Please model this.
Amino acid sequence: MSRGVIRYWLDGQVREVRDADPTTTVLEHLRGDLRRTGTKEGCAEGDCGACTVVVGELDGESVAWRAVNSCIQFLPMIDGKALVTVESLAAGGLHPVQRAMVDAHGSQCGYCTPGIVMSLYARTIDARGADAPINEVLAGNLCRCTGYGPIIAAAEACPTEPPPDVAEALYGLRRKAMLDISFEDTLFGVTRRWMAPRSLAELAEVALAHPDAVILAGATDVGLWVTKQHRALKTIIHIGEVAELNTIEEAPQSLRIGAGVRYGDALSALERLAPDLGAMIRRLGSVQVRGAGTIGGNIANGSPIGDMPPALIAAGATLVLRRGSDTRTMPLEDYFLGYGRQDRRPGEFVEAVIVPRPPAGSLLKVFKLSKRFDQDISAVCGAFALEIEGGIVRSARIAYGGMAATPRRAFACESALIGQPWTAETVERGAAALERDFQPIDDLRASAAYRALAAKNLLRKVLAEDGLPTARTRVLDYG
Model:
């Protein structure tokens, strides 16, 4: 049985879905239920971009449009939103983006082409994240046979256009009550339940009543639990409709980011806080991933190789947790207890992260090392926040990801630097101290020896960039 109806806008009409398994992906719905087979499944993990669609949702008085990977978006996540697929574009003949791809010979086998078209379409309507350079917009779309030259030429030829006028339709779809779906899964022999609270108080109540539930934000990680691990999720609480969690508050001394804020929406605010934070986020996933994944979700999952926690730890971020009507705060580094273990009590959830503004004249450097520049998980991520006065290191906060079972500060390294001259000799003592902070492991991403050496070199790089600010030590953009 099913309680609750999923409603969304598609091609000028409202679609209703009843009796749906809430862990059905948007891609499965498009290809199976609607027979819209233009949207392809390539990787089923949000990496290749063949399944890209464009989603619009109300944002105040306007509609915010985003390109997302439909293979890891669950169907209830588009409730109350607008959906545009590659079939939507060709209703009256080839869309200008499709025509540009044809004219530039931007397709060979064609399997990846619909996703590329949708990414370029999002750019033409100025969707969130689409103001990035063309190569960055296309970083989430993999093509093995065409070569990106013709695709980039097509992108350069695409004219801009206004987005679909769907605000009035979406106002009619707005829910006042929580979306609550129950589904009997006879294959796994479980009852699945999906709940999408509408307020922070309602979320706190529901989370307390269901302490074993999976709390879901953007599904860029949890989606793979279903598509790759085939896990039978029983109870899911989706935080995407909680307005209080989707806010960014910029104060004179700090930046408060709600747990539901997507990376793409936080990018500019964090970039204003420190340019390196923006540069790092632009390498985190793709436009599609940043259009769904949240900073709060990345923290809550506690991955040892998440890119954002080391940067936030170095910056001195504080985590806000809520359980019922009670809230507590802690330094972000204290949240990570061990591999797969976080300091989060039953029924408790991440509410926000508070990032202090760096002191004037301080350094905040963030470096990510991975096998690919784009769309890859870090082998090592290093973040360095230093205050240097009169050539002396007055304070240091240094954190690494990929070096231990959790994102972690390098306390021995910090101690070796603080109070010492900011020189190559001091940096070498700090680099040697890293051997006391970490004993990295070998895995598919990097060897222990590589990680140990790379971590030292990243510290050396901080000194090199500070001493030679015009030196080209890394690629910060796509120029």
